[in-house]
Amino acid sequence: MFANATSTLALWPGSLSSAFAYRSEIKTKGARLLGLLAVSLVGGLLGAQLLVRTSDTSFMRLLPWLMLLAAGTFTFGGRRPTSDAKPHALWMVLGLQLAISIYGGYFGGGMGIMMLATMSLAGMTDIHEMNGLKSLLGATINGVALAEFIAHHAIVWQPGLVMVAGSLVGGYAGASAARKVNRRTVRTLAIVVAWGMTMYFFIR
Hints:
Elements: H1 2-21, H2 30-51, H3 57-76, H4 87-106, H5 111-121, H6 127-151, H7 157-179, H8 183-203
C-alpha cells in the first residue's frame, strides 16, 4: 500500500504538468469531457479506498492480461473518426473509464495505455490529443487518490517528495518534446512501450 500511495504522490505532478503542456491539443470539450472527469474522480476515489483496505496482490495477477488487452486494442483500434461515435459507444467509453479509474486509484500500473486503448475504441486517432486527454484524466485520478492516501497517512514523504521534482519537470519536458514529433512516430513509440510493458508484466 505505502509503495503505491507514494508512487501516486510522485506521478500526480507529472500528469498535471504534462496536461498543461498538451492544453492546446485537448479538443474534447463540454459534456463529454465533464463526463470523463466525473467518472475519473469517482473511480479514482473508489480505487484508493480499496487500496487502503485490501492488498494489491490480486491486481498483480490480473495486470498482464489487462495490459495485453489494452496493448492490442490500442494497436489495432482507432479506425473510426471521433465524429462517428454513437451515443451507446460513449456510454461504453464512460463505463470503461470508470473501471480504469478504479484500477488507477488502486494500483495504476499501465493505466495510461489502458486509457489510450479506450480512446481508440471511441474513435480518437490523434495521438497528441489522446496523450493530452490521458494526462488530464490521469491527473484527476491520481489527485483524488492522493487526497485519500494523505487522509489515511499512507504516504512515505521523504522519498516521495524527491520523486515529485523529477516528475514535475519530466512530465512537462516530455510532453513538450513529444508535441514536436510526428504523430505517426509518437503513436509507434506508444505501441512499442505498450507491448514492452505487457511482456515485462508477464515475465515478472
